[in-house]
Amino acid sequence: MSVDQTTVAKIASLARIKMSEDELARMAPELSQILDWVEQLGEVDTSQVEPMTAVIPNTLRLRDDAIDADPLTGGDKRDAVLANAPAAEHGFFGVPKVIE
Amino acid sequence: MSTYRIQGATGEWEVVIGLEVHAQVTSNAKLFSGASTAFGAEPNTQVSLIDAAMPGMLPVPNRECIRQAVRTGMAIEAEINRWSRFDRKNYFYADLPQGYQISQLYHPLVGEGSLTIEADEKAGIPQDKVVGIERIHVEQDAGKLMHDQHPTMSYVDLNRCGVALMEIVSRPDMRSPAEAGAYLRKLRTILRYVGSCDGNMEEGSMRADVNVSVRRPGEEFGTRTETKNVNSVRFVMQAIEHEANRQVDLIENGGTVVQETRLFDPNSGTTRSMRSKEDAHDYRYFPDPDLLPLELDDAFLEECRASLPELPDAKRRRYVEELGLSDYNAAVLTAEVETFARFETLLAETAKRLGKSEKDVATQVANWSLSVAPGVMNALGDEANPAHATAGAQAAILQMQAAGEISGGQAKEIFEIVLKTGRAPAEIAETEGLKQQSDTGAIQAEIDKVLAANADKVEEYRGGKDKLFGFFVGQTMKAMQGKANPAVVNELLKAKLG
Amino acid sequence: MTELTELGVKAIRDGVAAGDFTALEVAEAHNAAVAAAGELNAFIVTTPDHALAAAEKVDSDRAAGKALGAMAGVPIGMKDLFATQGVQTTAASHILERFTPEYESTVSQNLWNAGAGMLGKLNLDQFAMGSSNETSYFGNVVSPWRHKDGGNADLAPGGSSGGSSAVVAARIAPAATGTDTGGSIRQPAAFTGICGIKPTYGRCSRWGVVAFASSLDQAGPMARSVEDCAIMLEAMAGFDPKDSTSLDLPVPEWEANLSADLRGKKVGIPREYRMEGTDPEILESWERGKEWLRDAGAEVVDISLPHTKYALPAYYIIAPAEASSNLARYDGVRYGLRELPDGAGLQDMYAATRAEGFGDEVKRRILIGTYVLSAGFYDAYYNQAQRVRTLIARDFEKAWAQCDVILAPTTPTAAFALGDKTDDPLAMYLNDVFAVPASLAGLPAMSVPAMLNGDGLPLGLQLIGKAFDEQGVLNAGLAIQQRAGFDAKPEKWW
């Protein structure tokens, strides 16, 4: 299934990656080639097979309802959370103004 | 059948409503991290590295959140899926650090269930109605954006981000704003009974996405709009009303309804199109590869079931059938968790003190709880300290009243003093002279005086004018300054008059 | 005295414990090797102080008579995909440039707890996407190997763990961490003549490892011997309650149970791995491998893994799909690069930041992943790929009825020159054709060096084991190591 430049532009927008016309023109045939190649999966009869859900048989563990039991997974660490922020002000992350 | 109709220029329209209620699960910690869920903390103080979606962070689910959602499912008699799975809903927004919300699309935790809304003639609900619930799934809440703190920036607070929500999705079964309101109230009651959500709409613990469409009665469903995040029963009803009328106007003027996300403005009671979500329709859901399928075992499910309390419908039925309460009293007493809890404690305490069955005292306790006690409290206003209204104090008052030691009026007066001071009812009755006279001698003496002073009326009574009995009672009570036990007065008068 | 940089993990650990040399001497020798190897471009940042501090601690513990950890005194390289507290962690991307985590990944913490120290953060393919280490924002890693004809074309060290393979092969570090999503430990190990093992999915915690494709990512060690891999894997692995997919099993004593005696074992040779176009020298190494394992007492049997040819296309749907979502968090809001053109709104900021912050290969995979998950395509692509994945895992399940471990080549060719395949993404992807099936099935798999080809470049052999049977893989690897007698090393030119 080949993808044209318009489709790539749409996907890029969905993925929030800004791309110039040049880039789109370059990327479209590359993506087409890859997608054409993965199409061969369609040959496989999978009508009797379930999609894989867990690669190694294992069940989902549930954790106890405890606050900050492990500092690595708990809260109360605003400085650490904001430490790398490009724009942190008054304890918030700042972003360009959003109109809802 | 709801008869609610919108009268358009071209005829009648029926409204079709479905609600997606987001209920915050009551838990200490978040769904996938150990950060606290407490309301009202300083910005970003209840945020873990996981909630902030730092590179390499991974989710581990909180058992309590799953348990509460399962118990909620059981409370609406829904199918509980022993095998469910978390999916990612992908979109970009500043309140969503991961770039996806962990939710459940393909295999939700809870399947088909229902709840019943009660008939309410005044609201246009002629009979009880069952509203279908399609599913309940568990998902993460998003953070919060603040737009008014800075001229060019919005501020992001992730405290709420990752708090567990149950999304409770109804069938499009409702046909009027009143039905939607009743559904929300009933759902809220159930959640609060179960203890899975505090139902506090002001703090955002419960929000509804309101799906509305209109159609000619009996025809196919029309195109629906979704109004997001409406946070009170009243607003939900307003939003439906406005949105349904908007759609009717639009169609009647030759337009078509666009499937879109809208925002409710509480100030104007209107809805408007939401710009920021316009292009977010392709969510690219897929199973979250960081999480394995969730499998529930028998022991887990049994505990969930065993820990369920008596639910509103069952409790209401029991109040009527076993306690002999009126339908109305049963409905009011079971509507709120706090109300029935207070009632049941007082009922037990009163029955114990009187050595009677709960059934025998239920009507007295219900009347006290629903009209007498609230009347006194309201009249006192700020002077009343509700903490003094213990079950013990109230039961003591009811006990004195049942024993004929105090009158109904005295009971109120004593309760008033209890509420103001916290003093013991028996002591108040004694000290303040709020006891009725049951001393037959004193009453007898007053009766003799009354009968002597009204010899003519005694003649008339004996001649067959039975109605005069009340007059003698009244005169005796008056002579006793209202403090005589009416039962004793009655008895003595009857004996005297023959 | 032997040069300390020639020593492996076991030799260093045992030598430090015995007092033959101090951990500090070892750290200093390796720090010097790191400093002298700038031309390989293997490190994104170096952390000599970290290595020294860890060594001093080991030396003082030893002086105090305290018990020493399994990696005590061993300085290692850390792939820059593992979050290291206070040390820049980039995944070789511009978008994470200068990102300094406030946390330590579980695997790196386990290694520090075992007494290891860090020489630096190793270069890699950006977000671990690549097979030649040519997609790093911080430049290509150059393999220490050269063609023996004296041609000095720069060769690829493999990828994505190309910094790791280069430093271990070049005797700059005795060992390094790697991660393997679709061959990223095994392929670079094969290209550079070293060992590397990807354990069973779930053995090593993924907590704190920058995610590429969550259902495939596994950390593992890269070192110059099977024994060293066993020691280091034991230190890295272990149950981690912070990772939902972590295996709640005790870590086996792989080192203590190493045995090259394969009597009673059956080695499967999958006929579908004999693909058209495979280098004859690769096939020759495979033949030798069979002989070595027979010599160790194993019985060699033919097996079939019928869905092998579909593994790579399935991988190139699943891995990009997961990656497209995993990489959505890089948006310029909470950390990393932010590009904010004049007048840009929030969504413009995202698009500009991600355009600037991601390299071409990362963009390509995000776009593929976004496409295959988008409305209308999910079933045909993603679900079909996951169904095929079930069939691939089932192939292995059936094979285990006939054999205990599988022997195959690691790669279809020896190392290629940098720049050779950069214009053809698909040709690059095909390099992982032998590595990907074990990744899709979550199985332990290892590459061990077998021989040099005619150009004087190393070729690796791959061993694939049953789930949880790293021991079987290591033991077969050890049997090959003992018989192959591979002791070639790159001549120092840097």
- Describe the sheet with the most strands of chain C: 8 strands, mixed
Strand count, sense and barrel status of the largest sheet of chain B are: 9 strands, mixed
Query: Number of folding domains of chain B?
Result: 3
Distance between the termini of chain B: 60 Å
Kindly report the average pLDDT value of chain C: 97
- Provide the structure class of chain C: alpha/beta
Catalytic activity (chain A): L-aspartyl-tRNA(Asn) + L-glutamine + ATP + H2O = L-asparaginyl-tRNA(Asn) + L-glutamate + ADP + phosphate + 2 H(+); L-glutamyl-tRNA(Gln) + L-glutamine + ATP + H2O = L-glutaminyl-tRNA(Gln) + L-glutamate + ADP + phosphate + H(+)
Organism (chain A): Pelagerythrobacter rhizovicinus
EC number (chain A): 6.3.5.-
GO biological process, one term (chain A): regulation of translational fidelity
Structure description:
The complex is a heterotrimer of chains A (100), B (498) and C (494). By secondary structure, chain A is mainly alpha-helical. Chain A contains three helices and two strands; from the N terminus they run H-H-H-E-E. By secondary structure, chain B is α+β, with helices and mostly antiparallel strands. Chain B folds into three domains: 6-302, no CATH class; 312-431, no CATH class; 440-497, Arc Repressor Mutant, subunit A. Chain B has helices at 63-75, 177-194, 233-252, 298-306, 312-321, 327-335, 337-354, 358-380, 391-402, 408-421, 425-431, 440-453, 455-462, 468-479, 486-497; strands spanning 6-8, 11-24, 83-84, 87-90, 100-103, 113-117, 129-140, 144-146, 153-157, 164-170, 206-215, 225-230, 261-265, 270-273, 286-287, 294-295. Chain C has a domain at 4-259: Alpha-Beta Complex (Amidase signature (AS) enzymes), CATH 3.90.1300. In chain C, strands 4-6-5-10-11-9-7-8 form an eight-stranded mixed beta sheet, with helices on both faces. In chain C, strands 1-3-2 form a three-stranded mixed beta sheet, sandwiched between helices. Chain C starts with 8 loop residues before the first helix and ends in a 10-residue tail after the last helix. Chains in contact: A-B, A-C, B-C. The interface between A and C is large, with 55 and 75 residues. Chain A: It catalyses: L-aspartyl-tRNA(Asn) + L-glutamine + ATP + H2O = L-asparaginyl-tRNA(Asn) + L-glutamate + ADP + phosphate + 2 H(+); L-glutamyl-tRNA(Gln) + L-glutamine + ATP + H2O = L-glutaminyl-tRNA(Gln) + L-glutamate + ADP + phosphate + H(+). Chain A: Keywords: ATP-binding, Ligase, Nucleotide-binding, Protein biosynthesis, Transferase. Chain A: InterPro entries: Asp/Glu-ADT_sf_sub_c, GatC. Chain A: Belongs to the GatC family.
